[in-house]
Write a structure and sequence with these properties.
The structure is a homodimer. Chain A has about 280 residues and is an alpha/beta fold. Chain A has one domain: Aldolase class I (TIM Barrel, Alpha-Beta Barrel). Chain A has an 8-stranded parallel beta barrel with strand order 1-2-3-4-5-8-9-10, surrounded by 4 helices. Chain A has a two-stranded antiparallel sheet with strand order 6-7. The two termini of chain A are about 25 Å apart. Chains A, B: It is an enzyme of class 4 (lyase). Chains A, B: It catalyses: orotidine 5'-phosphate + H(+) = UMP + CO2. Chains A, B: Keywords: Decarboxylase, Lyase, Pyrimidine biosynthesis.
């Protein structure tokens, strides 16, 4: 999917919501647990209930990997079920030396046909480049994550060539990596829990899309991230996982998920109207 | 496996060799390709041929993940086949927010019963801690990797609280993370391609084991890393993948792998004799 196609979907649906398919086998409603593939059955119902309200789905791969080989089958069925016009994100946070990253790219872009994958930057350019070789596929590089541990290294002051070392590591990651690919292939993870840094992110990467976790359960504000982070192509994919997919645990879980997604979508429509005009 | 048990194996086998099971389906000898599970059959023969010469096996997970669900079956069979007294490393380079890292820990420590997993440090403490909750299991944190891209961020000058910012990011990662667990649960990845930094590593973590990739195909020197990196418990696991498992591609590939491993082991015996006395 191209950047322009993604923006078209955002305008059409009046939404920049990404639904996180972090499907925990232990949280699946009881009435689905006896089906042949409870994880896929849960995802299918969530997708049916939310597909017109969101522009992206993001399965976190850990939830599937924890289930062994059958988790990969559930993941593959889920990917095949997601409508073509919805952007798909493998939240995998992979990254390895070049010849190995190529294999991860094959796993997520060829075998599973994801549109994008999240990648960790620590190992540098040759660990990221293999994911950029396929036209139409995206890398979403971790920059400033939403968890408390993001302060440990991402906020370290680093040498930016000036005398005052005012640039944090995540800013160096943005500034260095944006030379590796255009904003047609590269996005960044920037957590909603750090609104104080969004402007600094936008100074370095004004045109890139940002994948924003941390709204909802982790405490980030949709209003704030939208006000500070939106650009002329929206430039935001705001993720919500638990607040939507576990909105309820009874037989009506999918309807409740839809209601939760609708609330977010309506708020997003307001911000699109307000900031994009 | 405890640190003491690992050291016992090193002394017994006169080896600190880790064999990387980076089993590429396209490089498996022709005569194995028609077996039911060529990846496992290849691994089984490599293990039979090298188990008395090495103290660790390290499958890089990308090679298995690229094969879809059946890759995970091959990986599980391989893990079950590795003798109990050999340390096992899931080279996965995972790391995510806390509740998600817990799931990766379950995948590799419970489902697959690995002794250890490689973890990327970028997301900080709460992304690493879930891997440290199980007694007898190890985290091997990326510090200074062997690939060219390691220079992009790992060697950035960072604020170390002094006026001259003389500490690189990888040194900050070592200094910060060593408080998260003892050297009975935590090792570090330090590439053999950077011998100039080994002494700086040892100044910060004198007692930890280091997992050392980059000898052989990537150009690192076993002699140099052994001289500079060995401590009183050896403290090194030196990995070799391609040079051993693809020593030959014909019917005698396992014998040739053994010969290649034997050469490395004999060199290691010399260094153990020389530096441990």
């Amino acid at each position: 999917m191209t950047k322009e196609e993604l923006f078209t979907q955002i305008k059409k649906k009046q939404s920049y919501l990404c639904v996180g398919l972090d499907t925990d086998i232990q949280k699946i409603p009881a009435h689905l647990r006896n089906t042949e593939d409870p994880v896929f059955e849960f995802n299918r119902r969530i997708i049916d209930a939310t597909a017109d309200l969101c522009v992206a789905y993001k399965p976190n791969i850990a939830f599937y990997e924890a289930l062994g080989p059958k988790g990969w089958v559930s993941l593959e069925k889920t990917l095949n079920y997601i409508p073509e016009d919805i952007f798909t994100i493998a939240d995998a946070k992979r990254g390895d030396i070049g010849n190995t990253s190529e294999l991860y790219a094959r796993a997520f872009f060829e075998n599973l046909n994801f549109d994008s994958i999240t990648v960790a930057p620590y190992m540098g350019e040759d660990s990221v480049k293999p994911f950029l070789l396929k036209t139409g596929k995206w890398v979403i590089l971790l920059a400033l994550t939403s968890n408390p541990g993001s302060a440990d290294f991402q906020l370290l002051q680093t040498d930016d060539g000036t005398a005052d070392y005012s640039r944090c590591l995540f800013e160096n990651v943005l500034a260095t990596s944006k030379a590796w690919a255009s904003d047609e292939q590269l996005m960044y993870v920037v957590g909603a829990t750090r609104p104080d840094f969004i402007q600094r992110v936008r100074e370095i990467v004004p045109d890139h899309f940002l994948l924003v976790p941390g709204v909802g359960a982790q405490g980030g504000s949709l209003a704030e991230i939208s006000r500070l982070g939106m650009n002329q192509h929206c430039g935001l994919l705001v993720n919500s996982s638990r607040n939507i997919i576990y909105a309820a645990s009874g037989p009506d879980f999918a309807e409740q998920a839809r209601s939760a997604a609708l609330l977010v979508q309506q708020e997003m429509a307001d911000y699109l109207n307000q900031y994009l005009g």
